[in-house]
Task: inverse folding
């Protein structure tokens, strides 16, 4: 008998003597359900429910119906039991589209109970503490707001620093109020649930803060990696740090930054999903350029503008911008606000050329001042596409780059058809690497070759003539 069995056998025997029954004949005991409130229940109240195996209870039937609606394969045996296990085991009775494993387990065990009324004593007690903390934060917000109003009504001459000190103090107080608004709701489970479900109101500071925190953890790091990996800095800009989230889709297909796309997919303009994290309305300009246009005459690469839109109004509550609807009166269902300066030119690459980097820049217009669309069309439409530079555009107009994403294109089986449909010349052009001959003088034979150059070894000359770099 092993050591664990020797230790466990006396414990099992004592437990059997204490209960008076054996493990084989031990009847199932009812499970005590915890009440909603933290107060103890009365002695005459029934706190347990039992059901016979032959007659299923109404709760079990309801649970089975809910499981069928959620796409579960089989309901859990007890309503109050939370399954533990791997993702494959949990997927046997929980729908995978409902979020995290913890949330799926909670939904599978609570039925149609509202989220704020979940029957967990610790959860309800924590909500009471959070409610008290929120009341304190709201009281501070009211006090700080009253202080701001008094400071705005005060005369700047009463301060030692004058008007600059007054404006700096107001700015500090407003920032403190915004921070208090975030702290008042940062721990609210209802707020976190709405944000995870994608139902957050971006006009509120708490949801913008949560969105910025989520973007900074992974998406921003990926964008910074692509900027460094593909040498966007310093090829296109001397320095650049994105401050907003930009995602791109072509015909409904998600496009991670740096993806190589088929020319048939990129024939139409993409849809951008953009999110800003600070309040207020603003005007954006969208620029798409090719950073790797080969120039055979100078044996180098140039840049080419593929799309430009300006005066696009944006706010934290907006998130989608279809570039194909900009400046189009007959767009379906409706045109997007904004001015189209340079229409979409399908990206292409000739055969034999390396991949082309197509960079998408979002530029914020300073002081929400609109740009002259006619001047942009005169400068960059038509022949003005070639040689376009983001740095030069930023210097000529009051814009600042704030967002970025990119994709790549190469020659594929559909590129020639796309270029023919849009009247783009150069589909029959193929780039080949020019062979550079060595400038070193021919080397004399030595070793095995030098010893076998005479007529005696004529039968071996056929091998030496195949040696690359040896002249005969």
Result:
């Amino acid at each position: 008998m092993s050591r664990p069995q020797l230790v466990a056998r006396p414990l099992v025997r004592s437990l059997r003597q204490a209960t008076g029954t054996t493990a084989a004949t031990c009847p199932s005991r009812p499970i005590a359900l915890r009440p909603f409130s933290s107060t103890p229940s009365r002695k005459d109240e029934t706190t347990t429910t039992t059901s016979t195996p032959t007659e299923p209870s109404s709760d079990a039937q309801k649970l089975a119906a809910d499981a069928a609606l959620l796409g579960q394969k089989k309901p859990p045996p007890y309503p109050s039991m939370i399954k533990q296990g791997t993702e494959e085991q949990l997927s046997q009775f929980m729908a995978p589209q409902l979020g995290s494993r913890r949330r799926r387990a909670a939904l599978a065990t609570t039925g149609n109970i509202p989220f704020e009324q979940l029957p967990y004593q610790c959860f309800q007690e924590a909500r009471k503490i959070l409610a008290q903390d929120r009341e304190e934060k709201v009281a501070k917000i009211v006090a700080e707001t009253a202080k701001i109003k008094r400071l705005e009504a005060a005369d700047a001459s009463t301060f030692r620093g004058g008007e600059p000190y007054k404006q700096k103090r107001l700015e500090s107080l407003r920032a403190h109020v915004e921070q208090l608004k975030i702290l008042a709701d940062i721990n609210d489970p209802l707020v976190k649930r709405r944000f995870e479900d994608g139902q957050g109101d971006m006009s509120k500071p708490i949801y913008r803060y949560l969105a910025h925190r989520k973007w900074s953890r992974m998406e921003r790091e990926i964008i910074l990696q692509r900027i460094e990996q593909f040498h966007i800095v310093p090829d296109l800009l001397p320095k650049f740090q994105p401050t907003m989230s930009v995602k791109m889709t072509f015909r409904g297909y998600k496009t991670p930054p740096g993806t190589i796309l088929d020319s048939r997919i990129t024939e139409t303009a993409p849809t951008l999903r953009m999110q800003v994290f600070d309040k207020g309305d603003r005007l954006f300009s969208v620029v798409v350029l090719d950073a790797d246009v080969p120039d055979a005459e100078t044996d180098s690469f140039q840049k080419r503008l593929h799309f430009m839109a300006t005066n696009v109004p944006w706010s934290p509550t907006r998130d989608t911008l279809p570039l194909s609807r900009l400046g189009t009166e007959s767009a379906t269902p409706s045109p997007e606000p904004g001015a189209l300066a340079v229409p979409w030119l399908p990206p292409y690459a000739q055969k034999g050329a390396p991949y082309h980097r197509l960079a998408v820049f979002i530029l914020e217009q300073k002081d929400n001042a609109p740009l002259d669309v006619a001047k942009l069309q005169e400068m960059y439409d038509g022949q003005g596409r070639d040689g376009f530079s983001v740095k030069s555009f930023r210097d000529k107009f009051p814009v600042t780059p704030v967002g970025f994403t990119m994709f790549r294109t190469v020659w594929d089986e559909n590129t020639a058809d796309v270029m023919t449909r849009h009247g783009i010349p150069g589909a029959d052009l193929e780039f080949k690497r020019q062979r550079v001959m060595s400038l070193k003088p021919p080397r004399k034979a030595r070793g095995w070759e030098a010893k076998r150059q005479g007529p005696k070894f004529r039968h071996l000359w056929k091998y030496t003539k195949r040696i690359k770099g040896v002249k005969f």
Observations:
- Strands lie at 245-250, 253-255, 259-261, 271-275, 282-295, 300-314, 320-322, 339-342, 356-365, 399-409.
- Residues 121-153 form the longest helix (33 residues).
- The radius of gyration is 35 Å.
- The longest strand covers residues 300-314.
